[in-house]
Amino acid sequence: MENVNETNSNPVEQPATEPVIEPVAPLPFWAKLPRRNLIVIAALILITIILLTLSLFPETSVKQEANNPIPTPTLAPYVQSNLSLSAPQKNSNGKYFSNAEIATAQNQVIGVQVSLSYDPKVLTNVDITPGTFFANPTILLKKIDAVKGIINYTLFANHTQKSASGNGVIATLSFSVIPGKTSSTKINFLSTTEAVALGQFESVLKKTSGTSFTTK
Predict the structure, then answer these.
(1) Average pLDDT of adjacent 10-residue blocks, the chain of 216 residues
(2) Distance between alpha carbon 141 and the CA centroid of its chain, in Å?
(3) How many helices (H) and strands (E) are present in the chain, helices listed first?
(4) Phi then psi dihedrals of residue 42, to 5 deg
(5) Is residue 123 part of a domain?
(6) Which among 163, 158, 160 is positioned nearest to 198, based on CA atoms?
(7) 191 shares a domain with 88
(8) What is the Cα–Cα distance from 122 to 175, expressed in whole angstroms?
(9) Is pTM beyond 0.90 here?
(10) Residues 164, 157: contact at Cβ < 8 Å?
(11) Which CATH number characterizes residue 167's domain?
(12) Read out DSSP for the chain?
């Protein structure tokens, strides 16, 4: 009998080789931010660069501003009226009075919003009444905040008078000084002060002037 060398036909299984995974570099922090945040950061960086540049050349910046001043807004031609407070006068009873005086120029004024501020730690018993500029005016608002020291007073010409022009007293402010208070104090118009005229949809008030005085 012949010897037959039997060969194993089944190949030897080799262990599987694991794929080599290349390390991935982490994303920079800015790549993880939302688009809106990136825009804000870019704007801040740009502003910082501009400020640094200006700080390095301050004299040049000042000269440029002097040669190119910022234009002041031009008032419309119908903005002509002025409002001012007269110097407070003291009567025999120790109470002070100050008039809110209007000068309308060419405006036919139909109503005025008087907004004033004062020091409630110095002034007390504050009141405001209509002047003679409007005959029997219609009072739409009268509010005096004795805590904050703010007065809001709105009055309009009645249906008979309709409007008024020229110079006159819109309202009279009265007040007393808190006993023991001796100091310089101010009464100023607030930005909400307005004057309305016929044919105009915006305030025709050009200028306001408050008053200051020394209490005694």
Answers:
(1) 50 55 54 54 63 55 50 75 95 92 95 95 96 95 96 93 94 93 88 92 92 85
(2) 23
(3) 2, 12
(4) -60, -40
(5) yes
(6) 163
(7) yes
(8) 10
(9) no
(10) yes
(11) 2.60.40.680
(12) ---------SPPPPPPPPPPPPPPPPPPGGGGS-HHHHHHHHHHHHHHHHHHHHHH-HHHHHHHHHHSPPPPPPPPTT--EEEEEPPPEE-TTS-EEEEEEEE-TT--EEEEEEEEE--TTTEEEEEEEE-SSSSS-EEEEEEEETTTTEEEEEEE--TTT--B-SEEEEEEEEEEEPTT--SEEEEEE-TT-EEEETT-SS--EEEEE-EEEE--
Lookup: tokens for 189 = 């118009």
Distance, first Cα to last Cα, the chain: 146
* Residue span of the structural domain in which 140 resides: 81-214
- Dist. CA 16–CA 62, nearest whole Å: 76
Same domain? For 49 and 101 the reply is no
What 3-state DSSP class applies to 52? Answer: helix
Contact present, 161 and 184 (Cβ < 8 Å): no
Answer yes or no: is 2 within a domain. no
